[in-house]
């Protein structure tokens, strides 16, 4: 086990994932992927709140808040810049879907490098054929059942394509495979709702709260392609301008530069990201 | 690690699940739950074929057939009666959904006892509020994304309720949480299709092939409640007659006894199961 990875069963440090862990058996758990900058986790409270919302939905008991914050602080403390992945599973289970009240959740914290920079001129996207299934009880939270994302991301291997946009089974645009989407329309930044599927991204939430006029709106593929600008975002890379989607090209607009600047001012971790 | 559990990375025996395994990170893998009887796995070829179908869908390379059969034979050889769970994941991955061609699949084999017998008079069922989402590319195969099943099974804790029936988001009855469903109508045993969601159960497939008139048919809740008999089935317990569903009661019919007898004659493992 790497020095940058730690595992607990309840609050007891352990060396390995048990093969009977329900996280492995059923994807019965949650995760968070977080940016670490200058020794602290960016948006930690928001990540912790989303984790707790997921715990409410799945009836997974959250680790003690002090314990969790202490471990996250400890692993982030010496890191100038990195990515911290947190996995919380229901713990070891008997065979079968029924949940044992006695299970102690498994917690994994793993620190890794920030991924390589993306082209400053903006990302190149494609449309995916994969559709997100409509399942409101599991929508929004960041659970471990991510085969749809794996299938969507497996649709291309061309390294010149950076991300793929995905619709739900009702034909509405929802997100990219690992990032949320905002579309500029009539001067406002709009992002699809995540009530039926998709993930309530932490950077998405931040933009909805801090950018005047930003709002949720149902979007069809034509709404995306006809927009004067679109961006992707996530909690690791912040805002990612988009330069191309299939045949469609976008030139950098002031509205995008302003959006990037607002985030960079509030969260210096994202000031240094290549835009 | 229990003596009855073995793990391989590719064909190399290992001691533990790596915390970076994509089976844990994304539920990126498959499983089979199999009955072992008198030293052999019941319906092994059918389980292996379903596993291979899942591998085709998820682009997970199957273990070498000889290697896999040898390991399964070895763990089953000394077992008079038990349950063998097989998990096959894509293996250890980098962070992110993209698949590395270099990943060696992780294989877990775990032998456990046959679960306690169910009431010979038949099971008591309920309707679940949880719905299976419609996702045709993932339907039928036995992948590791099973949060829907976990949510459905968590709807009740009363030990007098044995299973719950689940509809899809379009209102069609599909299955129970861990078993397939057959409904007697006009003298024929009918089971819902698994094209949009649900799992192509191995016992379900056996019955479709070996019982004259057995077929797939779309079923609504009223079709189930008005049927003269319904049964559940899976590869561990075989056929499970149903005695009650909510307020509805069923008395044992000759058609059910005949169905149980046909299976018991073909597969002695299920002759001893309490019916």
CATH classification class of the largest domain in chain A = Alpha Beta
CATH architecture of the largest domain in chain A: Alpha-Beta Barrel
Query: Helical percent range of chain A?
Result: 10-25%
User: Major sheet of chain A, described briefly?
Assistant: 9 strands, mixed
Which oligomerization state do the chains in this entry correspond to?
homodimer
Strand fraction of chain A equals 25-35%
> What integer is the average pLDDT of chain A?
95
Tell me the Rg of chain A in angstroms: 19 Å
CATH H level, superfamily name of the largest domain in chain A: D-amino Acid Aminotransferase, subunit A, domain 2
Provide the low-confidence segments of chain A as ranges.
Answer: none
Order of SSEs of chain A, N→C? EEHEEHHEEEHEEEEHEHEEEH
β-strand number of chain A: 15
Shape of chain A: globular
> What is the structural class of chain A?
alpha+beta
Largest interface: A-B, 56 and 56 residues
- Number of domains in the coordinates of chain A? 2
Short structural description:
The structure is a homodimer of 275-residue chains. With 275 residues, the first copy, chain A, is α+β, with helices and mostly antiparallel strands.
